[in-house]
């Protein structure tokens, strides 16, 4: 059941258009094989998705990355998957015309029971690494555009973190992102 924080206007609950699905995970004496995405006649989920970029982040325990998205005119859709370690994932709907605007959805990510998450355009993403060397895979449907890169300060999910936000490891960029209440996306892209 969604709930509203007293100190913000953010509601905890599912976000329209976000899909989470378990990853096929096969272990044997050699290690493991896991399939994070399938397209074609038996897709992982009922959304069309073409990968343009595929990259990975490796994080120390206590790293907080987010909340990031890529806006218009090169808005990005992503599929993220846990590869190694453990994290707590956060999604924030920034789409003002969405029925789930300002909703935050959380998802546990763990290498032992991996999932993938489809993140539509306009949904900001972030996570906190709960283990040393946590690796997250990002597949994106368009090229990265620095001028379209947007973000919201992680304080929006501070009440959901397992440790105080000030004790997390964050990039200089993430430290200076605007608060959600004063956030307005403006692209610097000339296309």
Automatic annotation (TrEMBL):
GO terms for cellular component: cytosol. It holds the Pfam family dTDP_sugar_isom. GO terms for biological process: dTDP-rhamnose biosynthetic process; polysaccharide biosynthetic process. GO terms for molecular function: dTDP-4-dehydrorhamnose 3,5-epimerase activity. InterPro entries: RmlC-like, RmlC-like_jellyroll, RmlC_Cupin_sf. This is Unannotated protein. It comes from freshwater metagenome.
């Amino acid at each position: 059941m969604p709930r509203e924080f007293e100190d913000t206007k953010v509601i905890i609950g599912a976000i329209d258009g976000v899909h989470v699905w378990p990853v096929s995970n096969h272990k044997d004496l050699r290690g493991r094989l896991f399939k994070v995405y399938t397209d074609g006649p038996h897709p992982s989920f009922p959304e069309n998705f073409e990968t343009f970029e595929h990259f990975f982040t490796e994080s120390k325990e206590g790293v907080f990355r987010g909340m990031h998205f890529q806006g218009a005119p090169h808005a990005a859709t992503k599929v993220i998957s846990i590869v190694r370690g453990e994290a707590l994932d956060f999604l924030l709907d920034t789409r003002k015309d969405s029925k789930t605007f300002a909703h935050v959805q959380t998802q546990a990510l763990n290498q032992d029971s991996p999932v993938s998450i489809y993140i539509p355009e306009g949904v900001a993403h972030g996570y906190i690494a709960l283990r040393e060397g946590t690796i997250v895979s990002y597949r994106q449907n368009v090229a990265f555009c620095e001028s379209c890169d947007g973000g919201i300060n992680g304080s929006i999910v501070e009440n959901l973190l397992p440790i105080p936000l000030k004790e997390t490891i964050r990039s200089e960029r993430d430290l200076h992102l605007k608060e959600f209440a004063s956030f307005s996306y403006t692209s610097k892209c000339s296309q």
